[in-house]
Every structure is written in C-alpha cells, then in structure tokens.
Amino acid sequence: MFEFFKNAFSSSSTGNKLIKGVSVRYEFFGKPIYFDPIAMLEEIGLKLKATEQEAISNLNLAIEDIKNEDLIIQENLPPAVSAYFILGKNEIKVQRSVKNFGVQPISRYQFFTGDILFAVFQRRYDYGKDFEACIEKLKEYTDNLLMPHSHFVHLQNQKSQDIYLEKFGHSQIWLIFKRELFNDLLSQI
Fold first, then answer.
1. What superkingdom heads the lineage (predicted)?
2. pLDDT grade, residue 44 (50/70/90)?
3. Is the terminal CB of the chain with fewer CB neighbours within 10 Å at N or C?
4. How would you label 114-143 residue by residue, b for 16+ Cβ within 10 Å and e otherwise?
5. Average model confidence (pLDDT) across the chain
C-alpha cells in the first residue's frame, strides 16, 4: 500500500522480470523501458576475457581521473530507470540515464553494489562515426600510440581497471573500476 502512494506522488512506476533465474525489480521515472543488466555484464565479461591478451596495459591514470566530456559524461544524470537484483550475497543496482550530446542521444548505465560504483557503460547513438575520434581522445592518457583493431580498444591500468571502447553499431565504452569485484560478480551469474 505504501509503495502505491510512494509511486503515485513520485511519478515512478515499478515492474519485475525474471532473467536467467534472477528476479530483477525495475523502477521507472517516466516511460517504462526494460533492459537486461545481466546480459550486459555477461557480454562485457566475455569481451574482456577474449581480448585480455591484446589489452594495452599502459593507461597512465585511474579512470576516475579522465576528465574528457567527449569520452565520458562527467555530470550526475538522474536515472530514467533503475534495476535492482541480487547476485550471490551482493545487491546490485543499475541506473540507466539518457542525455543528448549535441544532436546525439547517449545512454549511460551505472552499476553499483552497495554504494560502490564498479562499472559504467555508455553508448553514443552515432552509428560508429565518433569511434576514431574517441580513440584519439584516449591517446592522451596512454604512453604510446593506440593501435586499434577494426572495432575495439581494450586498455588496462595498474589499478586493476579496464576501459573497453568499441564500435558495435554505435560507439560505446565500458569502464570497469574494480576488476576483481567485477569478476567475482560475473562468476555468480
């Protein structure tokens, strides 16, 4: 009953889905748009593992210190959708936000366990046209020239963090802030 009144006054709504045997609760702040956070984590986990040998381990700073709006949206965006679920003993919250970057919309997904931000996924709906420009921006943070494969760049630093930039229909970037925590969570899916 309380949930009904809370939703009525906050203009949010809720929904539930069972994904791979995991109950995911969604809270929508506007139009209800479902997404699959578990598949997202699995997909990037597979990509990081497949490209680990090719990763460039010369990212010179912590991901949090990259202050380039062309790569990573810095501002705190209000979520359009939040998803909540449990992996093992970890409560996971994923917030999906949307922003226009010039004429291109960008969606950003922030992955938390408790108050710890462990990953961010950001997609720029540009049909991949800004991929090369993003690589040029990443060069500022590495020791040498990035030699991208045709559609991705995987960077690592000494702080067990990863950046995975790819052109997969659109330009998109994954930021893994805590690799060990991320791998532990993946093993529980």
1. Bacteria
2. very high
3. N
4. eeebbbbbbbbbbeeebbeebbebbeebbe
5. 86
What radius of gyration, in Å, describes the C-alpha atoms of the chain?
Answer: 17
∠ CA 34-36-39, rounded to 5°: 165
| Region of residue 21 (left: phi > 0; alpha: psi -120 to 50; beta: else) | left
Q: How far apart are CA 12 and CA 159, in angstroms?
A: 38
Task: Give the up-direction half-sphere exposure of residue 56: CA atoms within 13 A in the CB hemisphere.
Answer: 22
Helix (H, G, I), strand (E, B) or coil at 22: strand
Instruction: Give pTM, 2 decimals.
Output: 0.87
CA-nearest of 134, 127, 160, 158 to 148 is 134
Order of strands, sheet of 116-124, starting from the edge strand that comes earlier in the sequence:
13-19, 22-28, 81-87, 90-101, 104-113, 116-124, 170-176, 162-168, 152-156
- Give residue for tokens 């969604």: 26
Residue count of the chain: 189
